[in-house]
Amino acid sequence: MKTLLQPLREKVLTGQDFNESLKAAEIYGSLLHMIDIGQYDDPQIEMTLTNRANDTLPAIIEPETTKDCLHIISEAFIIGGHTRLMEKLGNMHDIPPDLLITRRADAKARTRLNDVFSQVYEIAPESPLDAVVKIRDICNRYQRIVLHIHFDDIATVVACGLIKKVRPLSVYFVNHADHAFTYGSSIADFYFQLSSYGARLDLTKTIAGQTSFLGIPVADIKPESQPPVESSKPSLHFFSSGSAMKFRPFRGANMSPLINRLLTAWPEGIFTLVGINFAGNVWLWPLKLRFGKRLQILRLLPYDQFIARSREADFYVDSYPFPGGTAFAEQVLSGKRGIGLTSNVQGYSPADKLKRQSVEEVVNSIKNYDDEGAYEEILMVNGYNEVKARYLACVYAGERSSLDMENLVPWTGDTDYLKVRKSIFMPVYPLVMRYVYHHHRKLFWGIYFRFSFFNKVYFTLNTGKALVVKVVRFFKKK
Prior knowledge:
The chain is α/β, with parallel strands linked by helices and about 475 residues long.
């Protein structure tokens, strides 16, 4: 796969049209993010494009005065943890910082962000190079930049690099998707780490600045007092939530045996699963056929109903094969008893110590439940005030946090777990595939034929939908 990607990388580094090189860099970053080939950064691309931009664009003028801090996000959405993490960090400043959105934000997210940040900029660039110029000119007004950018947002990286060529600028990179490739290694003075998984991948990168553990902050929720669970009673309620991708079987790891065992061991028990479309997830069909109403599968649930249902449950079960980040930790902090299977992708919270390697070990942990001090350790690592102290000490005093999650939860994971072997399991954006089809036909077919069955179906259906929309619009214009 690395050989197939090489012509695209060469286009980034040596292409005559600079706009095309920037666009190719976006596509290259997106492909590496979705297709894990063991490469998690590419500072040479960042520095080469920054130097080309410096030679191409008029010199930047150093501002007479600068403001304190600007946060940058590529896209902002009302759902998902990416925007919420940025909001929490934004709220930690004594004086509200400003925000730049480099691509787009949905209307609800924009309204909420206006309550967190002092000033919110949005740009509408005409080309990738125009995006670099607009981002550079806004960033030039600030002393500190906190990046929450997408893995492929090369324009922001180049813009920050241009300013650093002219004057001091402190850049802090929050590596939201720390399990995969991203741009940003060459410009960050401090590279924030969110998990031990990400910290291990960072050892393979060429990071120009320092790494500093940050952690994902969760709300410090006072747990409700709960009566002891009678594990011998036949009607325990188990609850789990997350996107379908977090539950879909992967390389032999499958949550079905755990669900089956729990509903068998507790013959009047209920297992509620929120966030999954039953029809599109074949692995659930045999379980539903066997357990009927005792397995409740809900695609969407309003937040208040989600909270009510989760509070009714006796145990919260983390998603598997892929964990739910800090969702598991939040449930434990709220007083919920947490259980689950240990994933190869791990290290986001001390709540991991509540998980077990086998189904039978999980069952035994229910019968003899003990939080093993996880509550206090979660507060220490992911508590809002603790994360705030680490964050502000780094941003305003240059203090690096050396907290090591592995001292709390010994590592048993596998950083090669997501690496492509024979099949590509992660979906690749249809827009990216269309670009590759038009510009690098050999790479397109190389990727397509290595797609898993699910990915082939996903891509084909989305391509078909786009074609239908195009035809409908064509006839409407007539």
